[in-house]
Amino acid sequence: MMSLLREWGFPVGLLLVWTIAAAFTLHALNGMQSTLQSTLVPSQPTQVVRQPVAAGAVNAVPAS
């Protein structure tokens, strides 16, 4: 029994530590993504569109 534990103890322990580290990393990355999404400022349009001041002012001809 002791030789079986010596033979398999290190590989099983190493696999267990690797699995815990991978789970922690994925959990941290997921938390980072949700934090990033909550801190992002919504984008605002930067294109300036010319709009008429009044509906009748478009193509208005000055009175003579």
Protein model, in words:
By secondary structure, the protein is mainly alpha-helical. It is 59% helix and 0% strand. The chain contains one helix and no strands. It has one helix spanning 2-39. The longest helix has 38 residues, at 2-39. The termini are far apart. The mean pLDDT is 78.
Offer a concise description of the structure:
The protein has 64 residues and is mainly alpha-helical. It contains 1 helix and no strands.
Q: How many DSSP-defined strands?
A: 0
Euclidean distance between termini CA atoms? 111 Å
Low-confidence stretches: none
Q: Classify the secondary structure makeup into a structural class.
A: mainly alpha
- Percent in strands: under 5%
Supply the number of helical segments. 1
Strand-and-helix sequence, N→C?
H
Instruction: Characterize the overall form.
Output: rod-shaped
Report helical residue fraction.
55-70%
Mean pLDDT across residues: 78
Please summarize the sheet with the most strands. Answer: none
> What Rg, in angstroms, do the CA atoms define?
33 Å
Summary keywords:
64 residues; mainly alpha; 1 helix; rod-shaped
Write the layout of secondary structure elements.
Blueprint: H1 2-39
